[in-house]
Amino acid sequence: MSRTFALIPAAGMGKRMGADTNKQYLLLDGIPILAHTLKVFQDAPFISGIYVVSPEAEIPFCRSEVVERYGISKVRAIVKGGAERQHSVRNGLYAMDDLDPEDVVLIHDGVRPFISEAVLEQAAAAAREGSGAVVAVPVKDTVKVAVDGLITQTPPRETLWLAQTPQAFRYAIIRAAHEAAVNEGFLGTDDASLLERQGAKLTIVPGDYKNIKITTPEDLVLAQAFLKG
What are the site positions for Transition state stabilizer (predicted)? Predict the structure, then answer.
């Protein structure tokens, strides 16, 4: 049976949050958001190891004030990030070079602390059976496509999903996709897009609307409300 690992990009600068502290280190119920996220993977028995990607200058802080302070013993390495998220994920994948090609990698945003263990397990299982999996939720609102301020299309709502993380892949597949993107100068909006452009068929794993990415002050207020139940 292949193993399952987590790759947690946490190298963002959090400009939309408007805070002096990078968003992953903002406190949620007195604990850094990143620590909340890592604890989910720490507590999941099927996760064999965790790799965190951090801005290079913040690696000592991440290690001492998050990983060590909160007992995240599954962390194997804290890897320096890149200019874009895609570069950060690639750096993380290169640091995982002792993985078996069939091992599953769950790539999950460091500022999505409300992911459930059950969804992680479902995403990993889907990745083992196919080219990869994306956790997502159906859109609730009608979506309009507009060009120069004019509506050109209203896609059928039942075909539209909001992509979340984790996105799950076998190690050899996602590493090869990132290497191809580098060679071809392609910058995607998420990891799944690197495989989609190659014609891969990825599986949707239904997620949870609470699995928010905390990037704005409003998100932080909502996250506090989730914690209070």
Answer: 16, 23
The residue ranges of every structural domain in the chain are 4-134+164-227
Say if residues 138 and 161 touch (Cβ distance below 8 Å).
yes
CA count, 13 A, side-chain hemisphere, 67: 21
Token code pair at residue 229: 């139940």
Q: 119-162 pLDDT, tens per residue?
A: 999 999 999 999 999 999 999 999 999 999 999 999 999 999 99
Residue (of 172, 187, 44) closest to 108 by Cα position: 44
Amino acid at 126: A
Query: Model's pTM, two decimal places?
Result: 0.95
- CATH architecture classification, 4-134+164-227: Alpha-Beta Complex (3.90)
Dist CA 181 CA 186 (whole Å): 5
Return the number of other C-beta atoms located less than 10 Å from residue 155's C-beta.
12
Give the SS3 label for residue 160.
coil
Any residues with CB less than 8 A from the CB of 15 and at least 6 apart, and which? none
